[in-house]
């Protein structure tokens, strides 16, 4: 009985999610917002992050062209890629920042250990 209720609720939920497909404008806005977020925290300053940020910008441009050319499905997929690349740029920047903080902390610990000897 529990399984039947769960499957019914799961099916209804999946159908509801599948029924809503964001418009090109909504997806474009989300992609551009993610790009701006990555830019604002300095993703352009890290080589790996900058490469993915550049890809995201290019993909937004391609998506706009595809949409204007009447290929909405490809445009939507290109925007998904742009958003994913912008998210990756942000994650790579955060990783680089965390590694830099870790390196600084290790140097400070080493300095303290030398002072205690």
Written overview of the protein:
InterPro entries: DUF4398 (IPR025511). Pfam families: DUF4398. Residues 1-18 form the signal peptide. The chain has 117 residues and is mainly alpha-helical. It has one domain (23-116). Helices cover 87% and strands 0% of the residues.
* SSE topology string: HHHH
What share of residues is helical? over 70%
Estimate the strand proportion.
Answer: under 5%
What is the approximate shape? rod-shaped
Signal peptide: 1-18
InterPro entries: DUF4398
Pfam families: DUF4398 (PF14346)
Organism: Sorangium atrum
Layout of strands and helices, then pairs:
Elements: H1 2-19, H2 24-40, H3 47-68, H4 72-116
Helix pairs in contact: 2-3, 2-4, 3-4
Keywords: Signal
Signal peptide: 1-18
InterPro entries: DUF4398
